Amino acid sequence: MIISIAAVVILLMLSAFFSGSETALTGASQAFVIDQEKNAHNPRAKLLNRLFQKRDNLIITTLVGSNLSNTLATSLSTSVLISLFGREGVAYATIIMTFLVLVYTDMLPKSYAVRNANKMALLVASPINFFVRLFSPAVWFLQFIVNYTFKLAGANKNSSSATDSLAEVRGAIYMYDGNDALQEKAMLKSILDLTDIHVYDVMNHRRNLFSLDIDLPVEEILNRVKNCPFSRIPLYKNRPENIVGVIRIKTLLKEAVEHHNNYENIKIEEIMTKPWFIPDNTTLMQQLQLFRARREHFAIVVDEYGVLQGIVTLEDILEEIVGDINDESDISNLDIMGIRKINDSCFIVDGQVPIRDLNRKYGWNISDDNAVTIAGYLMDMTRSIPSEGQKFIFDDFQYEILKRNKNQLSLIKITRQEKTRTEK
């Protein structure tokens, strides 16, 4: 009898082990385990990643072990209690074993495993690997039955898609609510958004484009670029929309130094580079890859008719990921960006400033579903072209039209409204 009771206790402990292992192995983050293998060189993580390659076999092993342990423990305890209490022992065994299995081999180990899934998964990797090998014949047979049942039902056992995987990554990022990696979380979200944002949404619009006439005298070109904050300047011929080249300031200054005061010997056509035109519906992810492939940082954006829309740079894309990258030139030329801060809640903004820039810079949530610029947003919301002096309030922001040039909203005052709450 003592041996039987000891066997019941051992079987219940095995059941608790398999039950907790099942929860830990299904709840463990594979990304964490891969990081432990690649960066921490943890041998248990390496073993666990190998087991994850056949996750179905892994889960079936834990289920076989758990159910086999529970069944044997229940049978032995019933036999012992029948010998002690006769037929009433069946009822006693049912009550006692239900309580023990429910609390000690199911609830407790699973509750612990849920809270410590990664830690426990690494801890049980070696013993589970032993049982995977031990139960391999039974697991193979059960796996065959499962696959055959799927086939009869016409179900696709492997239904995961690339879209599901991407959604899983997005969900994992959104689920994180810690305070020690908020910046990294925002950057990861921005990286995933690169496939949904087009270069038109982040480009420097042609209205704000700093470009030069290629037919200007070289001395005049040098005078205009000496205080220029940009490293590359588009060159046009006859009209600003006709971009014929791009000049690097560094190259131009090098030529000026080499020729001293003989600027007439500098041939702009020879030192400029050909413009690279890209369609405005190119995604930021595609453009980032193109920048890397071509080893270029600067592209001219055109629409489907080949009409100039603006320019996009590598810095524009990087700012979508890491936020604004300001150097000394940017700081001293904030008005060029079209945003002038009056105080913490009031700003005067050029109508062509992209909504995304405002949202990213100040943490706002102005909708950019139907418009790219702040002027486009107001025209969409009002279904009209507002006049100077008109004021509107949309979603906690007051907009005042300061200047209108023909049909364009040139200058807009944006004031963030304080939310008022009434407490009962």
Keywords:
single chain; about 425 residues; alpha+beta; CBS-domain; 4 domains; five-stranded antiparallel beta sheet; four-stranded mixed beta sheet; about 55% helix; elongated
Say how many strands there are. 12
Poorly predicted runs: 331-336, 420-424
H/E topology pattern? HHHHHHHHHHEEHEEHHEHEEHHEEHHEEE
Q: What is the helical fraction, as a range of percent?
A: 55-70%
Structural class: alpha+beta
Rg, Å, rounded: 34 Å
- Beta percentage is 15-25%
3D architecture notes:
This protein is an alpha+beta fold. The chain has 4 domains: 2-153, no CATH class; 162-193, no CATH class; 199-325, CBS-domain, CATH 3.10.580.10; 338-416, Uridine Diphospho-n-acetylenolpyruvylglucosamine Reductase, domain 3 (2-Layer Sandwich). The chain is 55% helix and 16% strand. It has helices at 2-27, 30-38, 43-52, 55-85, 88-115, 117-134, 136-153, 162-175, 182-193, 199-202, 218-225, 249-258, 268-271, 284-294, 314-322, 328-332, 355-362, 374-382, and strands at residues 204-205, 212-213, 232-237, 239-248, 277-279, 298-302, 308-313, 339-343, 346-350, 391-394, 397-405, 408-416. A 5-stranded antiparallel beta sheet has the order 8-9-12-11-10, with helices on one face. A 4-stranded mixed beta sheet has the order 1-7-6-5. Strands 2-3-4 form a 3-stranded mixed beta sheet. Helix 2 (30-38) crosses helix 3 (43-52) and helix 5 crosses helix 6. The longest helix is centred in the first third of the chain and has 31 residues, at 55-85. The chain is elongated, with a radius of gyration of 34 Å. The chain starts with a helix and ends in an 8-residue tail after the last strand. 22% of the residues are buried.
